[in-house]
Amino acid sequence: IVRPVENGNYEIVSGHRRHHAAVLAGQEEIPAIVREMDEDAAVLVMVDSNLQRENILPSEKAFAYRMKLEAMKRQAGRPKENSAQIGSNYFGKESREILAEQTGESKDQISRYIRLTHLIPDILEMVDSKNIAFNAAVEISYLSEKEQKLLHDNMDVNECSPSLSQAKRLKKYSQDGKLTEDVIDAIMTEEKETDTKLVLKGDTIKK
Using alpha carbons only, what angle is made at residue 54 by residues 94 and 60, rounded to the nearest 5 degrees? Predict the structure, then answer.
């Protein structure tokens, strides 16, 4: 799907990978549907196309949700007073409800994904590589950029990542203006509680 732009050219809205494959295959032409659409409409089509991919990283989904909600908000022209309480103040509650219906995610889960866009790239990469848990990363996203960099350095040195409990405490110290390098080190180097799980098979339970 393409849309006309200036100088008689066209911008690809959906089908970037198909176009790339065609280029690699040496094709000089590729079938396309031409649609007249503004910038926001193009963003919505592009994001919907990306969200349909079978394998999508948490960071990709986070920025896709953010881009789509921003475009939906601009199209609806809602004032900031009607915005959602979770996440950034420019995401309208009604838009979140619509997106929740479209994706099957809850409104709060969509907001959690959007929080990931506030992480520094190094920590966001850890989320994508599953080196840090999703919910812990959401809590860390409330730390300032400087605090996140200090935390990342600490994780790198100690080869560890915060549990959800540790992440919540880091957030609390940050909100209180007391999150220093020493506090981060104290929290990250403490001995973590380990969860012990006992798995019993059905026939064992019957016995």
Answer: 55
